[in-house]
From TrEMBL:
This is Ketoreductase domain-containing protein. The keyword Oxidoreductase applies. Transmembrane segments: none annotated. The lineage of its organism: Eukaryota, Metazoa, Ecdysozoa, Arthropoda, Hexapoda. Keywords: Oxidoreductase. It comes from the Eukaryota.
Length: 249
């Protein structure tokens, strides 16, 4: 699958799914804009992209800060003159029982990054995506359809992301812009550690994984590539579940 000549923005590119997606897009010939807050981790991913040619650009930015979001788009246009693909991957997971004092603060923090930032970047990129008849891939979660005990704010953010994506897909379809969602189940990344948690902190009672495996970030990246490519020309407003069967449990 070639992305030669295409320009792709990947948020949360410093680790996990975003890093794998950025490297695969670079390998496929895209000009990739790597966005994340951690410059040191971004450097590692940038070096991997370099092995496929020096065609990427690093933006150290917090997607939830409006001025940073605008800078992501402005720097992309200044460097590469267009946007073909926007991968809204940056996200955080938090535990926050609804009975707890922190429930509201955690809800605000999660929504700002997992939902509001996606809406803002979609808004800012839309004119450029319309010009290129490009596409958006939003990384949601199986938690957007299946509730996980103690994680209602995270689940709500992903459910809202799914619905926002369908709305954006409908609105942008007349311009030839496609918007799709990927809902992974457990993926081997640092998301739990980055939330300051351990795997055992998450209440997985009643949850099973029929295929008895967890996914690699590269599996998710492969699906991003497919949905962002011309092979998916007829696919918009879809939610691709990649969860080893978890939603069946
Ligand atoms: P990760 O913690 O390894 O990566 C998250 C990335 O997002 C990091 O690069 C981090 O720096 C970045 N990020 C977070 N907040 C940001 C902000 N405000 N501004 C800019 N960058 C920010 O986790 P991951 O598993 O690769 O997560 C990627 C996406 O996949 C998330 O949206 C997550 O909800 C989703 N997801 C992950 C899993 C899983 O099991 N790992 C399952 C379902 C969905």
């Amino acid at each position: 699958m070639s992305f030669s000549g295409k320009v792709a923005i990947v948020t949360g590119a410093s680790s996990g799914i975003g890093a794998a997606t950025a490297v695969k897009l670079a390998e496929a010939g895209a000009n990739v804009v790597l966005v994340a807050r951690n410059a040191e981790k971004l450097k590692n991913v940038s070096e991997k992209c370099n092995s496929f040619g020096d065609k990427h650009h690093v933006v150290k930015a917090d997607v939830s800060v409006d001025a940073d979001a605008r800078r992501i788009i402005d720097e992309t246009i200044k460097k590469f003159f267009k946007i073909d693909v926007l991968v809204n991957n940056a996200g955080i997971m938090r535990l926050a029982p609804v009975k707890g004092d922190e429930a509201l603060a955690v809800y605000d923090e999660i929504m700002k990054i997992n939902l509001r930032a996606v809406i803002n970047l979609t808004r800012l990129a839309s004119a450029h995506l319309i010009a290129s008849r490009g596409s958006i891939v939003n990384i949601s979660s199986v938690a957007g359809t299946k509730v996980i005990n103690g994680m209602s704010a995270y689940c709500a953010s992903k459910a809202a992301l799914n619905h926002f994506s369908r709305g954006a897909a409908l609105e942008l379809a007349e311009h030839g812009v496609r918007v799709n969602v990927i809902s992974p189940g457990p993926v081997a990344t640092d998301i739990i550690e980055n939330a300051g948690l351990k795997t055992e902190d998450i209440n997985l009672e009643g949850v099973s994984i029929p295929l008895s495996r967890i996914s690699s970030p590269e599996e998710v990246a492969d699906l991003v590539m497919f949905l962002a490519s011309d092979k998916a020309v007829g696919i918009t407003g879809s939610n691709y579940v990649l969860d080893n069967g978890m939603a069946l449990s």
